[in-house]
Amino acid sequence: MSEYKRPLPQITEYTQAFWQAAKNGQLMIQECRRCGHKQWYPRPSCTSCGSLDLGWRQSSGKGSIHSFTVIRRVVANSPDFQRDIPFVIAEVDLDEGVRMYARVEASPEQVRVGQRVKVSFREATPEITLYTFSPSA
Amino acid sequence: MTKIFVTAYAETPVSRARVDKGEKKLTIEQYYAWALNMVLEQTGLSLSDFRGIGVGVTGSAYPRAEIWSAEVVQNLGLEPRLLLRGDHGGANGAALLVAGALAIQAGYVDHFLILGADTPMNITGEAALTWRYELDYLMPVGMMGPNSMAAMMMQRQIHQYGYKPEHYGKISVSQRENASKNPNAYFRTPLKMEEYLNSPLISDPLRMLDICPFVNGGFALLLSRDTVAKKVTDKLVKVAGFGSWHNLDASNSLKDITTTGVKNAVKQALEMSGIKLKDIGLFNAYDDYTPVVIMQLEDAGFCEKGKAGKFLEETDITYRGELPLNTGGGLLSYGQAGMAGGMHHLVEAVRQQRGEAGERQVKDLRYSLVTSVGALEHGGTFINNYAIIFGGE
């Protein structure tokens, strides 16, 4: 397998559970055990009540495209994406009520605002499996 | 209440460091020195007159010493009582202006000198320092920095409000006309709508001419307490009001990505200044991208949210028009000097208030509004939102 040349996330004490779950094909989002607030991206405290007591909840992996763009130029720190151009990145609103940025595996003509999408996973390295979305029925 | 006046301003000519075209390639330290020197020349003051003042220095997008503001004053021979560094992206200049005004009102200093410079064109093959959330959750999935985020805001605007490419193009074309009258602007050749429409898509629906180009440049503004301002100049520009808001709607995970916190900042600035929006004769809005200008037109209240298309069709936004917008050309045509870019909007408003804008001078100008946004927000628009009003007695 060739060397992975794209930017990778840093795994920290409070995000390792997320990345471990991703390796098992599960999309997790943070949920506050005190007030029930759900949030993405993972943070060390609840942005609604400040509690440090955060748990994980498995997302259905289903959502809608809030907005999207077709990438036609890469920037200096992501040259390896050049071979994928053009490709689609979207803001996906998960049905659980959080928004995440993700790749949409579809040609630009197939993507529209409001479209339903579903998560799948692609292994990048032994440590990191990245989430990605594709159009659902 | 203490009144605060802008008593000096400076804006260096900018460069894209194209040595092959005979352009200068100066360092960030040189731009700081040049901007300060312009203030000394304009005011006739000497460095010793600046002992014990406040100094604010903008950040830089590229790796610098963590103790940057101290290095800047050491390089320049400044001896300030108060020393601050901006950390607010596009809103660096406005944030330092608010902090400086508060320091003067508190009685801690009589003057506050804002210095801003950045040299993004000197960096090759090296990425700007970025946010942890971008490194972890944006770049790995293929996001290409601010262009991708602005493109999604624009896509959503088009979806919600039906805006057409020509609406965005009008901003680009009108600001270029303003820039054609600004000798300091980098891009001064007038632009046709057709050229805008034919400019290549970079990140759909964002075209090349929706995006501001980087330049190297330097700026300065001097704020002074009312009791000492007249000793500096008789061309006083009053800071009539200001407002700011950060991280609006902080815990909302599903924000409207067509709205900024500028609405809160402008409301506060108008209340402080005691004027109405209709009194504003010039509007300089942060313009890293054309859709961001549209948001600020709406959020400031010049038109309703979602009605900017019609507003742009009916309104002349050049320096001659009903609502002069980014009269110096804005970042789209003047250029964006990295993290100091937002200083351009403030300096241009001050120059216009002094009646020193030459061919592009707005006639009978009483009040100017500058809005600045900075720090792209995860799943939203901008974290930092500022409004500054200049004018009045």
TrEMBL record, chain A:
Database matches in Pfam families: OB_ChsH2_C, zf-ChsH2
Native species: Caldiarchaeum subterraneum
Gene3D superfamilies associated with the record: 6.10.30.10
Protein name, entry field: Zn-ribbon domain-containing OB-fold protein
Domain ChsH2 C-terminal OB-fold: from-to ranges: 56-122
Domain ChsH2 rubredoxin-like zinc ribbon, first and last residues per copy: 19-54
TrEMBL record, chain B:
One GO process term, biological-process aspect: isoprenoid biosynthetic process
Alphabetical list of CDD domains matching this protein: SCP-x_thiolase
Signal peptide per UniProt: none
GO MF entries: acyltransferase activity, transferring groups other than amino-acyl groups
Domain Thiolase C-terminal: 249-376
Coiled-coil region list: none
Keywords: Isoprene biosynthesis
InterPro entries, alphabetized: Thiolase, Thiolase-like, Thiolase_C_2
Entry protein name: Thiolase family protein
Lineage: Archaea, Nitrososphaerota, Candidatus Caldarchaeales, Candidatus Caldarchaeaceae, Candidatus Caldarchaeum
